[in-house]
Amino acid sequence: MILEARGLVVQYPGAAVPALNGIDLALRSGELVAVVGPNGSGKTSLLRAVLGLVPLAAGQVSISGRDLAQWTRSDLAQTVGLVPQREDTPFSWTVDEMVGFGRYARLGALSSFSRSDREAIDRALARCDVTDLRSRRLETLSGGEWQRVRVARALAQEPRLLALDEPTASLDLGHEMALFELVRSLVAEGMAGLVITHHLSLAGRFADRLLLLDRGRVVASGPPAAVLTPELIEAVFQWPVAAIALPDGGREIVPLRTASPPGDYS
Fold it and tell me: Which residue has the higher pLDDT, 239 or 86?
């Protein structure tokens, strides 16, 4: 088990209710788990909790069978590659420099790159389809290009677990699909994937398991077909939907117009 969390409780100062209240999560190598839910449901808090970025009021997290408290930040960065939801870059780095920062998790900030480091950077650039951007300055990139560069930086760490918080923000349809296809291929090669997403249909098409949160609690957990049901989604999101089973085994969630008569979406 690469990641295991039991009974997680997170209570932010001044908040009337916990952001997380008794959350369990388990993740194996070769598995992609998507955490879904409405705004404020606790998705990002869960990611931050399992990475030790917020204090726990209760519960326990272990990574590779070792309690999270026993990991140094440096050791953790060699195991987990994180793509956060928001990020500012105050300096005018090139794409090649930004992706190279992923290697410092293994080398230390003042180390020089070896041949194997350069090869890891080249592989990460290629996997994210940004090799042709390597000389570009970050401020010249589109939102979608910048997102792919950030994923490449995480891959340059050569992690065992890739954690992504809303990774399809600013991406068009083609790059949304390409990013999830990339994550899916990495998982097929043995990496573990944890994705925080508001995109129910992408989660339903690519994830092995879903964790559906609402107000800091787990509403449902299991394969997409068991979680992405109209009854569950309507109850959590407070909006009527149709659930469509796709030929590839995925699940598509379609929000319905409340002023329109229901159709046959079976």
Answer: 239
